């Protein structure tokens, strides 16, 4: 893969991570709406979720769907951290192992590239 294409896939991966961050925070606000009933939380949740979708659409211009979309699994990591930081949820060893596997999978997939059969 030529240098320019390799650089653009990193832009796509970065944008997909930003997208997953927005969607994870959108879901956090939805959880807060369920807890408090404050309508502002559901509105903020939809705005962040929508922004995440727009960033995802933009990211797809920088690489293959099969490489970029699995990066959205980072939203599970952000959701776990959000639950711990903002909701007081517990992170146990099984969750840490799961996060490690998600990170490993994202690294393997993110380094993938199209190979042409000859």
Structure in words:
- With 118 residues, the chain is mostly helical.
- It is built from five helices and no strands.
- The longest helix has 34 residues.
- The radius of gyration is 16 Å and the shape is flat.
- The chain starts with a helix and ends in an 8-residue tail after the last helix.
- The model has no long low-confidence stretch (mean pLDDT 90).
Based on helices, strands and strand pairing, what is the structural class? mainly alpha
- What fraction of the residues are assigned to beta strands by DSSP? under 5%
- Mean pLDDT, rounded to whole units? 90
Largest sheet: none
Number of helices: 5
Helix content: over 70%
Q: What letter string, H or E per element, gives the SSE order?
A: HHHHH
User: Which term fits the overall shape?
Assistant: flat
The counted number of beta strands is 0
What's the alpha carbon Rg, rounded to whole Å?
A: 16 Å
- Unreliable residue stretches: none
N-end to C-end Cα span: 15 Å
Task: Write a concise keyword list for the protein shown above.
single chain, 118 residues, mainly alpha, 5 helices, 0% strand, flat
